[in-house]
């Protein structure tokens, strides 16, 4: 059993050990496998095949297992590290310690948006990106996307609204599900209903790879998803009688039902069911 | 349908429509084949689905969106084409129409485009937000790219 902390509470040593483990994983080539995996399982809801990761009910359990796998990979280099979480309702400034020189480094510089501070700055020689989206190899960020369509980080109220929804997910179990905790947090914009929110909005706010198909190329991805994972816990605690949905076939039918993962349906690539991932109390806890 | 007229923020490039359309058709066929391969490997049901065959006489092709403009110094071009197989029953016709073949290029390099269940588009570059038209999708990708270029086509699928 280990603890995932709020990133703002990490000691200097804890930050250094986490960064070291991430850099070792990167050097081993395994980090990039995680980038590829995320891209591979990010299936659109217009595709007629199973979609375990996004636009789908199993958004939470799939990413829970994905984070566990990533954490396991890091722990092979240092058994004492875990993935901290970034509460972006709280640490919502570009000057947050999250973005400091001794942790993830800061915003991209004007012009080419290249990150030039911290351990993932290209000039440090330890971090390169560009797995198939752009032909630049330096990490970029563009906090808040200044310009014609700026983005702000979600607020405490935005989060409270999503956590209030007592239903886990609703048909058609995809990116246009207007009700349900899952899509409120995943945050797909729905015309006439709501704008891009929570999870998606944070990806947009960071910018660079985080906004694109290779989002785990920016290590903040893991801290963001650690918080998303914690939100699932908070929601379960707030609604102890609410179940993961969809449940068994054919009790939860719908046109998209064949492509989404019900409570007892094994998700690729690990073959683990959402039910197995509901309770992580024996593996880790949040502080 | 003629290329989308210039809007604020974009400068229309004089259309070379006939030539372009031929070029895009070739690119669309190649691009789609490449993108479908991993999908077909995994899903035998998809492989069994009849392919919309765009050969002469086998169906009709309708361009639902087409544009070519300079946007923030980048050349963006795009087309969305719907292929309706000849003699397809009305139901199938609707199903095929729901998934147009799309193509966006930024400075000549292809941008991978996907579609959401509500018919809006997203791209590899802006992956967490979608847009009603290909033009908006292309412009949003340019905004997100900043000074970066898209990866060359070979690197597109990892």
Automatic annotation (TrEMBL), chain B:
Residues 43-65 are annotated as: Disordered. It comes from the Bacteria. The keyword NAD does not apply. Belongs to the melC1 family. PROSITE patterns: TAT (PS51318). The keyword Translocase does not apply. It comes from Streptomyces sindenensis. InterPro entries: GriE/MELC1_sf, MelC1, TAT_signal. Keywords: Copper, Signal. Transmembrane segments: none annotated. This is Tyrosinase family oxidase copper chaperone.
């Amino acid at each position: 059993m280990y603890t995932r902390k709020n990133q703002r509470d990490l000691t200097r040593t804890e930050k250094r050990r986490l960064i070291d483990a991430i850099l070792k994983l990167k050097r081993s080539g395994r980090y990039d496998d995680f980038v590829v995996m995320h891209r591979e399982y990010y299936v659109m809801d217009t595709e007629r095949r199973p979609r375990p990761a996004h636009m789908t009910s199993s958004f939470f359990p799939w990413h829970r297992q994905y984070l566990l796998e990533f954490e396991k990979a890091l722990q092979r280099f240092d058994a004492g590290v875990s993935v901290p979480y970034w509460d972006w309702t709280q640490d919502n400034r570009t000057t947050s310690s999250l973005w400091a020189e001794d942790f993830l480094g800061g915003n991209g510089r004007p012009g080419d948006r290249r990150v030039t501070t911290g351990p993932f700055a290209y000039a440090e020689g330890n971090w390169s990106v560009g797995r198939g989206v752009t032909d630049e190899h330096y990490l970029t960020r563009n906090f808040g996307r200044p310009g014609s369509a700026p983005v702000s980080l979600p607020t405490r109220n935005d989060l409270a609204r999503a956590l209030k929804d007592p239903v886990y997910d609703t048909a058609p179990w995809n990116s246009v599900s207007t009700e349900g905790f899952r899509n409120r947090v995943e945050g797909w914009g729905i015309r006439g209903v709501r704008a891009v929110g929570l999870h998606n909005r944070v990806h947009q706010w960071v910018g660079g790879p985080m906004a694109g198909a290779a989002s785990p190329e920016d290590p903040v991805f893991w801290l963001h998803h650690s918080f998303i994972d914690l939100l699932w816990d908070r929601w379960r605690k707030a609604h102890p009688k609410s179940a993961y949905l969809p449940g068994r076939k054919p009790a939860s039918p719908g046109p998209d039902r064949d492509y989404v993962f019900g409570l007892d349906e094994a998700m690729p690539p690990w073959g683990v069911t959402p039910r197995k991932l509901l309770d992580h109390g024996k593996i880790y806890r949040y502080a | 349908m003629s290329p989308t007229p210039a809007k604020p923020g974009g400068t229309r490039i004089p259309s070379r429509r006939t030539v372009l359309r031929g070029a895009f058709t070739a690119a669309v066929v190649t691009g789609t084949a490449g993108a479908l391969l991993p999908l077909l490997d995994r899903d035998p049901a998809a492989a069994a689905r009849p392919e919309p065959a765009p050969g002469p006489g086998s169906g009709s092709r309708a361009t639902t969106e087409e544009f070519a403009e300079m946007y923030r110094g980048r050349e963006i071009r795009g087309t969305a084409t719907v292929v309706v197989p000849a003699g397809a029953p009305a139901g199938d016709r609707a199903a095929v129409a729901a998934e147009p073949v799309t193509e966006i290029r930024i400075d000549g390099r292809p941008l991978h485009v996907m579609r959401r269940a509500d018919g809006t588009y997203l791209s590899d570059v802006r992956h967490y937000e979608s847009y009603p038209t290909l033009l908006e999708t292309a412009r949003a990708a340019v905004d997100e790219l900043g000074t970066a270029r898209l990866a060359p086509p070979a690197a597109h699928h990892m």
